[in-house]
Amino acid sequence: MNTGGSFFTTQSSFSVLFASHALTASAFVWILSEGKPYQYIARLLFRAAVSVIPAKLVEDKQAELRAGIEKSVVGHSLDGEEQWTSLPENGMERNELIALLDRYSVKDAENWTSGRVSGCIYHGGEELTDVMTEAFRRFALSNPLHPDVFPFVRKMEAECVAMTLALFHGECAPSGCGTMTSGGTESILMAVKTYRDLARSTRSIREPELVVPVTAHAAFDKACHYFGVKLVHVPVDPITFRADPRRMAAAITPNTIALICSAPSYPQGVIDPVGSLASLAKSKNLPLHVDCCLGSFCIAFSEEAGFPLTEPFDFRVDGVTSISVDTHKYGFAPKGSSVVLYARKDIRHAQYFVAPEWTGGIYASPSIAGSRPGALIAACWATMMTVGKSGYVKATQKILTAAKEITQGVRSTPDLKLFGQPDLSVVCFGPKDGSSLNIYNVADSLTERGWNLNTLQNPPCVHICVTYANCGSSAKFVDDLRKAIDHVKTAPAGTFKDGAGAMYGLAASIPDKSVVSQVAFGFLDALYATRK
Question: Residue 181 in 3-state DSSP?
């Protein structure tokens, strides 16, 4: 599982719950089912198996699991640290507070400054971080909800959108426009909400459906869950992992509100056939949203950096109606900034919310949030102005060169194969066909060597998302990868019984995914845990 990145990939606690008789029974039922037509029956039998186990045993196993998850998530960060669960009687002295913040930040930085983290950290260097800090300091109290009070925050936000629109060839759109959001998830939420409301007002659709490749980001699942849209997942090509226009076309119904594609997709890092999907969307009079959140400025500058793509992916393609772009990724802006772009202003109007009769006055907001941190806007604007076009081209060249080196290293490793052909910065790989190599165990072995990769499923594989922070580590990664493979192949039985392999292997055997969700709930609960 992933929560944007890897989801506690090496936690041992997962195996505790799966040791119960109920889960063994469920795995047996799942093996017998061998297909989707039997999943419903398998779930029923699974629940029946659970019902015959003493409640106390189930409760004890679940409690043990939750404790294990909490220990793995928060244990190391709280050891020896004072905790505050209520306000201090008197405010902390400034020097004491700064010293505490320094210690916290140094400890956190130890986890990523080695350049061995996949994705997650998209910084452009310490000097750029200093620029962001200065922007934050100057606009810490600002709020774009009040443009009359903060006109220059409004100006910077408009310019961030305009500059991003230009990178994605907004000149090809009739009246290109957009808004800033708090991140890629909100940009995707806004696009889905927009197309739901647009379909409701122009086509009277009351049971909306969204056609999405299975490789599209889980934020589309979240958006459909939030906004009451039926999510129609469509299989991708099993070899290229790109969206299949033929299957996408077959999934369209009179209730379809939009089609979705990725440039690139999060799991395998490949760009969907935007041109073919745009033609399909246009022929059906449907919108097409291109998710460029991960591609970000890297895809926008790839051609100028010497890595041309086979076809355009943005508003140059007739039929593309919206694009989501994360400025906080390869735009190097701080986390909490993204942009959603539209080909026309009337589409953007469907994103807005207006309460014209509220007793507090006419209320209008462009996106989900009301009050927003103007400091993030200022920091994003300052970042874009500091790096400039030439800076982004140079950074993109370094990032894509490193990704190419890793791609070549994976391709020349006998035990591995690439999952899809990497188009940009994501390199996805797994065991060669017929190999018994457990790729999750390889990921665990890499973790022991200081690497933090993203573990994926359906099919089992892992990926590394190359960022500016690990550009100088490509050769080291390939070397460590091969050592990890050798370790997995020669390690005694039981070496990896508590790692990601155990977690994903056993999770795949459970027909009732609500059980896996309950484990995820335990992880999310642990994020807010404090020690008493």
Answer: strand
